Amino acid sequence: MKRWDALGLIADAYPRDPMVVTLGGTTRELAAMRRSPSHLYVLDSMGLPPAIGLGLALGLDDSSFDKVVVVEGDGSLLMGLSTLATIALTTPRKLVVLVLDNGAYSATGNQPTAAAAVDLCAIAMACGMQTGEVRDLEELRAALEWTRTTDGPLFVRAHTDVEAAKVPYLLEDPVVLSSTFAAYVARNR
Fold this sequence. Notes:
- The chain is of the alpha/beta class and about 190 residues long.
- The chain has 8 helices and 8 strands, in the order αβαβαβααβββαβαβα.
- It has helices at about 5-15, 25-35, 50-60, 75-80, 85-90, 120-125, 135-150, 175-189; strands at about 20, 40, 70-75, 95-100, 105, 110, 130-135, 155-160.
- α2 links the parallel β1 and β2 (about 40).
- The longest helix is centred in the last third of the chain and has 15 residues, at about 175-189.
- It is globular, with a radius of gyration of 15 Å.
């Protein structure tokens, strides 16, 4: 499945809930496709989206938001894998971690990640998360419905190809991006 198509389904499934979006092509594609103040576009902070999402899910537990969604890549998840242990410790019921696994570090030339050698769902399950693994858009659509109706923490590994859409770079000030997101969360809490 193409990342672009997967991102479209994710944006449709979560039009209002806070979404932390990993760096690189994923951020650029989602911003080009469906720019939203509910999205925190994480620039150059590899490995941190699940930690940011965890903090938000804990802090927004009593809010009107149904979920806090993290859209992560396999390489970035591997860099910040220790966050899954903290998720196990804190069990945030609103947290959804969606890993778009293309098996490559796309931003630096598609060098392979170690994701093919690791059962990411088994790791997430060992950290107290309910998990699912998908390989096509229909499976992703069903998994997104499951994440919308099931208490977390939840983890979905979605296999995508390495094709990247031709979109402009997102060269905005991270302070402005985070301020826009924070204001959205505060207004809609």
